[in-house]
Amino acid sequence: MNKTKKGGAKVRHGIATLRQTQGSKAGRSRNILSAVLTGGLLTAAWPTWGIAPLAFIGLVPLLLMEHRSAQGGGGKVFPIAFLAFLIWNTATTWWVWNATPAAILAWILNALFMATVFWLFHCTKKKVYNNPLGNFILIPYWMAFEYLTYLWAAKWPWLNLGGVFSSTVSWVQWYEYTGVAGGTLWVLIVNILVANIIQHFKSKETKPLLIDIGIELLVVLLPIIISTNTYKHYEDQGEDAEVIVVQQNCDPWNEQFDSHFYDQVIQNNINLSLPLVTPKTRFIVSSESAIQEGIWLHETDKAKALNTLRDYVQRFPQLAFIIGGTTFEWVPQGMEDDFPARDAGDGKHFYYCHNSALLIDTMNLQLHNKSQLTPAVEAIPEWMGFLKNYSLTMGIARGTLKGDPEAKVMTFGRHKVGVPICYESAFGEYVSTFCKKGADLLFVITNDGWWGDTPGYRQHFEFSKLRAIENRRCIARSANTGRSGFINQRGDVLQQTHYWEPDAIRETLKANTKVTFYAQHGDYLSRIAVYLTFVLLISWIAMSIIRWNKAGERPARKPAKRKKK
């Protein structure tokens, strides 16, 4: 009899173990599916070929996985979040590989940062507010992280959630008040409400479910209705300014860099723009690094390209020529230890290298040096000083460049212009600084040819549409190989060129001098999120310490007495 009971117990234990194993495997499969769904939905939402509204549900699978884990049955949050964000980063920005092998490091690091943020949210939620309302803790954490992507050495704001709406500019005209951070807030709130609706539906809690559905509809529709109405009635403001944009189509991977090639690039700019010049033309805008010869700032009169362009504008004194180039200057005495300083080869003389935008008119030469430098390509962290004179690309400008400490506005006639260089156009608050300083037009100059015919140059073009709305400024954009174009103050594309075709286009833009609320106050939503994040982290740490102390004070349990048979 005892043997029969023991045998039955073993069978039951075996069945329970089998079910537990099967349940564990099913749970892992479900978690992996959650990661794949989140990574896939966010990728499918992303410009330029994505469907933006998918961002409203992109984080839902991950949030549901986190809820299962917080309730004790969902597995490890960090590796699943890492997988989700690695899929999103790799599938959306795979084209970075065309410019630098450091792309792999960028994908992994950014996915690690995102997964860490999600894990911190999970830990805080479990300690502070472990129910569906606790999902809202993700908002300040994520927005604080996005703010850091503008500030730290590994700057990479390319995938900030609010950027997803560049393909639906009529939905986000209110960016002139909030910037892209407002879009991030919108995406996060909608995702959390959808996840809460699903959780309440599963628990059959009718009242919270109906409330969530009502709030969800309001949160999704109200911003769209307000924005669409603004979009219909907004008209560009300011006086007319005729601008020509040149796309000279110089292959950045061309190995035949010599004086003849340099001259040909400048001549291409002249030949393409000349037929479009009229007495009303105020600016000709060419791309980043269009001047291929290095220019020493203490002897600009010896730069052949500058002299050729000076001769050109002498024929048309009513206009200024804006163009990009690599410039050099000697390091002032006593500044030899400055990190961007480069040894001239004799150990005694040092120089700086700049990625510059130059404004050439009949009287002056003005320049703005790029300060938002591309990580690993133009800027090496100081702790990696042994690499500071090297680049992780095959580019001309190697190592760490010297940037301006702040955005510089250039003046011509009655106009002040801001000229973000390439990567700088991804930084909303930085671009707004030009407008705060009086810029009435924005000219984005870039060289996107490093990435080839990939989504990279198209995604980069999209940023300019958001900058136009944030600042209510018309934008002329010149890209070496495309896409170049004009964008009005609503974010509409007025004209654009085709990729890999030499071209020049002309447009009359409105030069607006009014400063928007966002340009005046910058990323204030993100700064608020940083403060809230500190409060939440301190709360999590404090509650963890309190619980540990309480656990230590509990008296040890007495062993249970065995019943006599």
The H-and-E topology, N to C, reads as: HHHHHHHHEHEEHEEEEEEHEHEEEEHH
Distance between the termini: 17 Å
- What is the beta-strand fraction? 5-15%
Rg, Cα atoms, Å: 28 Å
Largest sheet: 8 strands, mixed
Q: What do these coordinates show?
A:
There is one protein chain. The protein has helices spanning 2-45, 60-70, 77-93, 103-128, 138-151, 175-178, 180-203, 206-233, 259-273, 304-315, 428-436, 455-471, 517-521, 524-553; strands at 239-247, 281-285, 291-296, 320-330, 342-343, 350-360, 365-369, 409-412, 415-418, 441-446, 475-479, 485-487, 493-496, 503-511. Helix 4 packs across helix 14 (524-553). The strands form two sheets. Strands 1, 2, 3, 4, 5, 6, 7 and 14 form an eight-stranded mixed sheet that branches. The radius of gyration is 28 Å and the shape is globular. The protein has 565 residues and is α/β, with parallel strands linked by helices. 45% of the residues lie in helices and 15% in strands.
